[in-house]
Structure formats: structure tokens, C-alpha cells
Design a protein that fits this description.
homodimer; about 250 residues; mainly alpha; Arc Repressor Mutant, subunit A; Four Helix Bundle (Hemerythrin (Met), subunit A); two-stranded antiparallel ribbon; 10 helices; 2 strands; DNA-binding
DNA sequence: CTTATTAAAGTTGTCATACAACATTACATG
DNA sequence: CATGTAATGTTGTATGACAACTTTAATAAG
């Protein structure tokens, strides 16, 4: 059992509750070089003293670290840094989504996945799933005609395709990525709506995907989905994103 | 502001600390149908009473829910279920990794990504990154000669390719997936090591990937990486996984 | 001296109480 | 009815106590 490394507390400067702040500080500490897997954090009382907060705050912060899979506690013994494990989640730090580059990186990840998702959907889709996909595509059109932004309908469309992969992880991951791309999707769709030619192109791209899935042609589906996402990425890149990102930030600060 | 829905507490039966158990129960409740985004959880005191635990336990559990992005608290007002947001993590439930099908589904997700990663690495890799990739490939061989299982070296190899994408999300996501596939990788490599012909095939697959990246040929890199991962998946599928999964489970129960 | 047993100290998990800071509701006044 | 004040309710934090467990230290026995 490794000894408790030297505990260096830097002044907590972030905003939020004390628990939030201690959690952030401990997380950084653990992700640093001093606390290797297996090493033991100082006792709750010592940490409370070091941070200048009550034991309650420490316990709440440590409870969160446990949820992140970063530590495990053993009653009577202490709190220990965990090895790489299946409990740690995959996250994208929301605070980085204030740069155009970061948005495009997330878009790129999604782009990579959508091609694969469409190919698998073409292989595995059931009749019912095909009906749902076609219905979702139709709903995009109905929403547009009703004057809506179409973002939710677009998400439902892509979700219906991900469901047809029969692999829940594709669905969960794409849903996860939607969270980061709602604003970007809104931007893209707004831009596409300003030009009839673009709008038509997007419809055709969607149709090509659906057609390939219907025909159960994975290669065509992959290609169509990639081309659609690449087109969307290009269209996103041709819009001045900064204005929208500034809005996004003010919205998130409530 | 929506009213607080009816609060139905089912007897907590799972193991772990009370905080763990209340957290699980609340999470299920929130993911159910009664608590829509915007709705308010009962007050801490009421939940403590309902669950038959102290307010401390509730607070610790709610602190975790906040970390999961599932709720937000407003001092003086209450705890509210959040909309879809960028704070919620992507997780794969470790408990499902006890079935062969689930392992193969995670493998499939990784398979999809590795092709895209290799293609991007071929487009973007720097000289230094190319050196690191070749070095990592050499290290696999050295580890095998030293009698090691080669799992860590294999991970380092794939990691070096993901780094060459220049997109941190691919790297982070593939690292995340490694956590679930360590055992499967061990199984595959063990099986591959039992037959000289297989072992040679894997080396050639690796070489083909590295060659394509070196030549900066994205299509060849994508194809080579997909073929390698498909081969690995087939090889994994031809092993009796159940024995190993049983072992994995007993290891995780400490 | 070595080994085994017991006691003491330390640590996490939970409970209870109190107060600060904030929000909501109820009541009184013009 | 609108406005202001008081009362009540809720989250955030601190403190103290005790239970359940682990580790270390002290003591007794061979």
C-alpha cells in the first residue's frame, strides 16, 4: 500500500458551491502526478483542515469523486485513487465549447460516427425501424413547413437511424454528442434555410441516406451519411460562429 | 415552474453505502416518466424521511446527481431536473460487460472508430508522431519477446495513432473504450499467440496500418485499420469468452 | 527474545442539530 | 389592487456524536 503523497493545496478560486470547488481541486490533484493509482488521499479531517472547510463539504466532494470512478473508499482505512476502470465516464468539458475549433472537433467525431451508423443501420434495420426512419424524415419537412427550426426533428431523424444499428452504444454516444451540437445544428440549419438551393441539397442528402438504408446497402449508406455530414460541416464552417458562441455562453451563465 | 410529482419510493435493495443506494434510486426515478426536465424533486428533508435516512445521505446522493448533470439545485428553492445538457457524461454500464454480446458491441464501436482514427492520422500526423507510432509498434514486438502479454503495448500503439488525429476527442474516447476492452484484448492476443500464422498475420496488419499512415494515405489507413479490427473481432469471436468473463467478474467483486 | 492478544488510535459512514443565505408564501397596509 | 413586511420553507455549511471498520501500539505469554 502506497503512502499518502504530499498534499499541496492551491487556493480555490473557482466559482460555485464549496463542494464544487473542492471537487474540482481534488480532481485536478488526482489527475496530476502526485497521486498514482493505489495511493491514499489524506483523511477527511486532514483535507477539511487543509481546505479550510467542514468535513461535510469534503465528504460531498469525495462522494462525487467516487461517482467519477476516480477513487474508492474503504471504511476505517481511507480513500484510494483507483486504477483505470470501467466506472470512469467519458466527458467533453463544456467550457471548451466556446471556441470554433472545439466545436468543429466535436463535429468531426460525430461525422466519423454517422457514416458507420448509417452502414450498420443499412445492414440491420427492421421493417418497423425503416418506417420510423421515413416518418422521422417526413417530420423534418412538416416542422419546417410549420416554421420551426427543425433541430429537434433533425435529431430525431438521426436518432432513428442510430436505433437501427441494434447497438445501444452508438445510440447513446450520438445522443451524448447531440448535447454539444444543438447550437451548431441550429446554426447550420438556419444557414441552410436562407438559400433554397442549399435547403434542397440537404433534403436530397437526407433522402440518399434513407434510400441506401432502405435498399440495405451499407456502403452507399456510409457514403451518403459521410457526404451529408461533410456538407453540414462545410456549411457550418462558412458561417461566422463567433456570434452564436457568445450567445451560447451568456445563456449558460444563468 | 412545474409542481413536484408524486414521489414513489421503492424499497432500496442494492448493495453499497446508503449514499450509493439512494443515488441509484433517485437516478432511476429521474430517468423514469414522472420527473420531466424542469420538475422539482421533493425537499431534502422529505426525501430523507421517505428513504428513512439522514439528510447527509440525501445531500451526498444529490451532489452526485449534480455531477451527472441530471439535476441542478437552487438555494432556497429546491433541486430541479435538468434538460439535456453538456454536463451529462457518456457511460457504459460496467455491469453489462458480463455478456459476450455486450463485449462485442463495445468492440464494434471501437472498430468503427479505429478506421476513422487511422484515416485522420494519415492526413495529419507529424514527423514526431510518426516516430512515436513506429516506436510503439516496435515496443509490441519487444514486449512479446520479453514474454509479456502485449496488451499495454498494443494500447500504447493505438493511442499513438489516436494522438496523431490532432483531435483530443478521438484519443479520449478510445482511451475510454480501452477500459472496457482490456480483458477482451488479452483474450485476443493470447489466442493469436497460440498460432504462429495468426501472430504473423497480426504483425502484418499492424504494419499495413503504419505503412499507410507513413505514406499519408487516409483511404489505405482506414481500410487497413478496419481490416485489422475486423480480424481481431473475428478472432475474439472464435474464442470461448465465457470462461474469461467469469474470471473478470470475480476480479471485480473485491 | 518472539509471538499472540488486547487496547488504543485512526478513519469512513451515518445521524442529529444549528445557523447562514436564499426563495416562496402569507399577511398587513395603503 | 399593489406594495411592503413577516413567516415559513429550502439549500449550503458547520459541528458534534456515535457506529463500524482498520491499523498501530502496548501488553502478556511462551
Amino acid at each position: 500500500m502506497k503512502s499518502t503523497p504530499e498534499f499541496k493545496v492551491e487556493r480555490i478560486t473557482t466559482t460555485g458551491t464549496l463542494t464544487d470547488r473542492v471537487f474540482d481541486a481534488l480532481k485536478q490533484l488526482i489527475n496530476g502526478e502526485d497521486f498514482q493509482p493505489g495511493s491514499r488521499l489524506p483523511s477527511e479531517l486532514k483535507m477539511a483542515s487543509r481546505f479550510g472547510v467542514s468535513r461535510t463539504v469534503i465528504r460531498e466532494a469525495v462522494s462525487r469523486l467516487k461517482s467519477e470512478g476516480l477513487v474508492e473508499s474503504r471504511q476505517g482505512s481511507g480513500v484510494f485513487v483507483r486504477d483505470r476502470n470501467m466506472h470512469a465516464p467519458f466527458r467533453i468539458d463544456p467550457s471548451i465549447m466556446d471556441s470554433v475549433q472545439s466545436v468543429l472537433q466535436v463535429v468531426e467525431l460525430r461525422l466519423s460516427l454517422e457514416g458507420e451508423i448509417a452502414a450498420l443501420a443499412a445492414k440491420r434495420r427492421t421493417r418497423e425501424q425503416m418506417v420510423a426512419i421515413k416518418h422521422a424524415l417526413k417530420q423534418i419537412e412538416l416542422d419546417e413547413q410549420a416554421g420551426k427550426d427543425g433541430v429537434e426533428a433533425d435529431i430525431v431523424f438521426h436518432r432513428s437511424i442510430a436505433e437501427a444499428t441494434g447497438n445501444p452504444h452508438f445510440l447513446a454516444l450520438i445522443e451524448f454528442l447531440f448535447n454539444f451540437l444543438i447550437k451548431a445544428t441550429l446554426i447550420t440549419r438556419s444557414y441552410e434555410a436562407t438559400k433554397a438551393a442549399l435547403s434542397q441539397q440537404v433534403k436530397e442528402e437526407h433522402l440518399r441516406i434513407v434510400d441506401a438504408i432502405s435498399r440495405q446497402d451499407p456502403e452507399a449508406a456510409r457514403l451518403a451519411a459521410r457526404q451529408h455530414m461533410e456538407g453540414a460541416s462545410r456549411r457550418l464552417g462558412s458561417v461566422d460562429l463567433k456570434r452564436f458562441i457568445a450567445q451560447s455562453e451568456s445563456q449558460d451563465s444563468h
